[in-house]
Structure formats: structure tokens, C-alpha cells
Amino acid sequence: MTFRNGEDTITVDAVVVGAGFGGLRMLHELRQLGKSVQVIETASDVGGTWYWNRYPGARTDSESWIYAYYFSKELQEDWDWAERFPAQPETLRYLQHVADRFDMRKDIEFSTRVNSAVYDEQTNTWTVVTDKGQTYTCTYFISAVGLLTVPYKPNFPGIDDFTGDWYFTGRWPKEGVDFTGKRVAVIGAGATAVQAVPIIAKTAEHLTMFQRTPNYVMPARNYILTPEERQGIRTDYENIWDLAKQHFFGFAMEPAGRLASQASPEEQQRVLEAGWEAGGFRFIFETFDDILVDETSNEVAAEFVRNKIRAIVKDPETAELLCPKDYPLAGKRPPLGNFYYETFNRDNVSLVDVSNSPITEITANGIRTETGEYDADIIVFATGFDAVTGSVTGMDIRGRNGLSLRDKWKDGPLTHLGICVEDFPNMFMLSGPQSPFANIPVVIEGSVEWISHTLTHMGENNLASIEPTAEAVQNWRQHVNELVNATVLSKGKNSWLMGDNIPGKAHEVLFFFGGAGLYRQECQQVIEQGYPGFAFSDQSERALV
Ligand code: N01
Q: CA 315, 318, 322: angle at the middle one, nearest 5?
């Protein structure tokens, strides 16, 4: 129930921060549990990541039929995806459809930022204050702020002197940007730049891409879904979701059932070629099951990609610059390309390697590196995000005895299951640090189901608060570290998965790399075994408001 205490304070059962994939799903679940909910969202509409990332070429890297919710059969029935990998406007429309279909907007405060959330031990409540001066009190504080939310802009001197226009890909203007006849500089070579560059190059007079570290870019092989394909997907929904829930990265794919280490060189090439043709992450997951764990097998796949780059890109010098050579495939999150390498064959596209000659400043006319100057009318910063933790610690969150989450996490995140934090009772996170690196809707569904079970358990047992024990948090940290160290995934350069893309950020794995399936099992075990690793306080000990 929602109470209005005087003019300024509104009391609800739960405050949810964010109205993207996670926040909307959480709102729906809390309503099902009969809780009153206030969602607070910075943007003027739902969508989260898909609201902000409107840059040219933005589209999902997950196949549409599993980049969706599966909590409602009716929702699945009444939505048709147009493409294998939907573009940003289509994904945003889907989330808007969800919000309308379930009448969610009435519980969402848009264009509002949460400044602080403070836990009060005496009352076992959270006080949440927004930038509009509104105060909410609630029993459950739930962060659904997304993992790629806070854009990172390197601190190049001189940006204020630049006479042209500049943009962040993660804060792209709604009205779009006209590149016609413009000299465009794109800084970055991650998944965002890989999507944006081929589209911008179509209209720009000239595009110069500044690359510090090349990526292993696999072809997406996007296509329009035919009515027959859409019907086939619908008929097969249950199987698709069963596969996705068990799959390491939450995709509807089966293990390949073979190892590169046991295949002949001819067999390796034949299978990798088929994976390259299948497109998307099928190149990694439907070829050989040891690509992510066996360095020799990984190098076979990595060299296959390099040879593809050399075959596609006509200028040998550019091709070599585009080839990643000093880290394994998937050591950084591999992007999917839509004619990415082909773009470097255009006369109006050039590549500047800034690995040894870094950008030193932005000038009035463009970009200066240690060895050259490049004029530009527009600069596009595709320089990534303060990922996973940045969006959570962007709020001033204080737990027991005023303890600040920023301080608690200064050497890296500490959680249990990536959902709960010691000393922060009744706070829950969706897509929090140390939760799985996988197709996000699958991860979110799993976390929401766990939170839902937990709130039900607390209600049935008169429990007022939950938080993890110090021991469970340390064990979880050790567990996530052991998992990532058993793979090649921690061996990339400047990888945001490890916090290494932001100068000064703690080097610490930000994800559970045991797979979405194993994570679900471990969460389920916690429930079945009566919540080992969690401490509850009894309702009778509390003077609840
Ligand atoms: O960010 P990134 P992103 N000088 O951090 C470079 C997801 N995503 O926005 O690699 C020069 O990957 C930096 O260089 P380096 C996806 O999970 C999903 O592209 O650090 N360059 C790098 O090239 C992805 O992984 C989708 O050496 C500098 C780039 O900026 C994640 O978002 C689409 C620099 C940043 O790359 C992040 O991708 C797009 C400097 N000083 C993104 N500082 C879909 O699924 C940084 N860079 C649809």
C-alpha cells in the first residue's frame, strides 16, 4: 500500500531504480506479490540501455527470440520480431509495448534521478531521495540501473576548444545526427564503434577511426525474419527458453559436443567456417566447446578470425592493424559486426592506430595524437562505460551505520549471488556485479525469480530483513574469481569485464563466469537449503513503520 506522509514523503513497499529490462520485470513481479512499488527512472521513457543508446547501427547482439521476457505467454504471443538481431528502435518499441500492455507507467516517475538511498536500522526502512526533492520510504530498495549505463569519456584536454560537435554514443540525441559531408572522428573500437562505423561511413565525407586495441569481430549475419520463421519460433518457445536458461551465456544453443583439441586441422577449419557462416556467437558456441577454456584451441579460432580479416580487408597494413594479436578470442567481449571489416575497404574510411601513439588532446580543429593531427567536424566518443558498478555507486547508497557502498566497494564489488550486499539489508540488485555475464533478459528473469521467492519466504516466516553473511560474501568472491581464472575471459587488454577500462578502477572480475545455467542452480540451492549464507531478522524484533 502507498502512504503519503504529509507533503513530501511517500511510503511504498519497494522502490525500484530503473525502467529498463530489469526494472520493468521487477515491477511486474512485485505487483504479483501484492507490493506497492515506485519505479524511478532518469530518462523520459522506459527502455534503459535501449533508451540511451540510439547511435547509428545500434542493435542487439542476442537473437531477438531470446532477447525478450519469458514470464508471460500472452506477451510472447502478441509480439513479433522483425529481425534476427533487432535494431535499437525495435527493442525500445518492445519495452514500450511491455510497459503499456501491463499498465506500468502509472508506477514510474520519469525524468527523475535517485540521489541517495539510506537504510535506517531502527525502522528497518530505506529513505530514497530524488533530484526532484521527493522522498520515499520503503522496505525494499532494488537497484535495476543496468550494467552499461554510465558513459566513460577519457579526460582528453581541449574538448572545450573544439569548434565542431561531439557526441557520446551512450547519450545519442533523439533527433539523430546528420553526417552528410562531414569529417567524422570515431574514438574507440569496441562493440559500439563496430556497429556505428559502417553506418556513419555511408554518409560522412570521411570517417577516421581511432583504435587502441583491435577486437575479434564476428559477422552477425542479421536477416529479416519471414512469417514462417516467426511462426516456427512461436511454436518452439518452450524449447528455446529451456535451452537459453541452461546455456552458459543464456543463448538458445546446444553445446557443440566436440573439442578443437581433438579435431584435425582440416576438421577445425571446416567447423569454424560453418560457425562463421552461421553468424553471431554461434561461431564460439556451436563450433568447439573448449574455445573459452583451452588456450591452444582458442588460438586456432583466433587465427581463423585473423585470416578472415586478412581476406576481407584489401589493404594489408590496415588488415594487420585490425588483427588482435596479444590476447585470446573472448579475452575482451567480442563484438558482432554488420559489414564491419568490409567498411575499411571504402575510400572514405581510414584507421589510426593509437596503441603506440595515444591521443594527447582535442584541438579546435580535431584530434592530436603523439605523432599526428587529424581534422574533424564531428567527434564520436565510443569509449565505453564505467560498467556494472558505476551505475550503482553513482547513487549515494548507505547501509547500516551510514556505511557507504562506494567505500565498501572501493577495492572491488562484494556481494552474495550478485544480488545482496552485507550491511545493506533488504537491498537487492538486478544485473549487479558478480551476477552472470550472459544474455541479460535470461539473467534478469533468474534474479527476479530469486528475489520473488525470497520476499515470499520472508512474508511467510515473519522475517523483516535479509542480508548476506561476511563469510558468504568472501566465498562468493573467491568462487567468481576461480571461475573466471579457469577461462580465457580474464586475459584481455583493458577489459571492462575486469574493471580495467577505467583508469584507477579496481581490477576485479565484475561477473560470475560459471554460466547462466550453473548460476540458476546455485541460486535455487540457496532457496532449497533454507538460505545458507544469509542472515534474517525477525519481524517481532522490529518496530516497522
Ligand atoms: O565500450 P568498450 P563499447 N584512447 O569499452 C577505447 C555492450 N554493447 O561501448 O580497448 C583511445 O568495449 C577502448 O580502447 P581499449 C557490449 O557488451 C552491446 O564499445 O581500451 N581509445 C575501446 O576500443 C560491449 O562490450 C551491444 O584499448 C580509447 C573503446 O574505447 C559493451 O557494451 C552494442 C580510450 C571502448 O570500448 C561496451 O562496448 C554495443 C583512449 N583514451 C555495446 N579510452 C549490443 O549487444 C577508451 N578507448 C547491441
A: 135
434-459 confidence digits (pLDDT tens): 999 999 999 999 999 999 999 999 99
Give the distance (Å) from ligand 1 centre to CA of residue 382. 6
Q: Contact, 527 vs 453, CB < 8 A?
A: yes
For the chain, give me the number of helices (H) and strands (E)? 17, 23
**Residue 435, strand partner residues:** 511
| Cβ of 379 below 6 Å from ligand 1 | no
Position in ligand 1 atom list of the atom nearest CA 496: 5
Q: Is the pLDDT of residue 203 over 50?
A: yes
Lookup: cell for 440:
541479460
Q: What predicted TM-score, i.e. pTM, was given to this entire model?
A: 0.96
Look-up of cell digits 577511426 = 209
Q: According to the 3-state scheme, what is the secondary structure of 330-342? A: CCCCCCEECCHHH
pLDDT tens, position by position, 37-74: 999 999 999 999 999 999 999 999 999 999 999 999 99
Atom 41 of ligand 1, nearest CA residue: 154
What's the gap in Å between 58 CA and the centre of ligand 1? 13
Instruction: For a ligand 1 pocket test, name from 212, 322, 329, 354 the mutation site with the most ligand atoms within 8 angstroms of its C-beta.
Output: 212
Which three three-digit cell numbers place residue 81? Answer: 520480431
C-beta of residue 437 within 8 angstroms of C-beta of residue 63: no
Does 543 have pLDDT greater than 80? no
The answer to whether the CB of 384 is under 6 A from ligand 1 is yes
Angle at 9 between CA 5 and CA 11, to 5 degrees: 75
Q: In this predicted model, what pLDDT tens digit does every residue of 75-92 receive, in sequence order?
A: 999 999 999 999 999 999
User: 318 in helix, strand or coil?
Assistant: helix
Q: What distance in Å separates the CA atoms of residue 59 and residue 184, rounded to the nearest whole number?
A: 21
pLDDT in tens, 86-115: 999 999 999 999 999 999 999 999 999 999
Q: Please give the number of the atom of ligand 1 that sits closest to the Cα of 497.
A: 25
Label each residue of 387-453 as H, E or C: CCCHHHHCCEEECHHHCEHHHHCCCCCCCECCCECCCCCCEEECCCCCEECCCHHHHHHHHHHHHHH
Confidence of residue 25 (pLDDT cuts 50, 70, 90): very high
d(CA 224, ligand 1 centre) in Å = 27
Q: Is the CB of 60 under 6 A from ligand 1?
A: yes
Å from CA of 215 to ligand 1 middle: 10
Q: Which residues pair with 120 in a beta bridge?
A: 125
- Is residue 12 within 8 Å of 37, Cβ to Cβ? yes
Question: Which atom of ligand 1 approaches the CA of 213 most closely?
Answer: 27
Ligand 1 near 154 CB (within 6 A): yes
Q: Confirm or reject: Cβ of 212 under 6 Å from ligand 1.
A: yes
SS3 percent helix, strand, coil of the chain, rounded to 5, is: 35, 20, 45
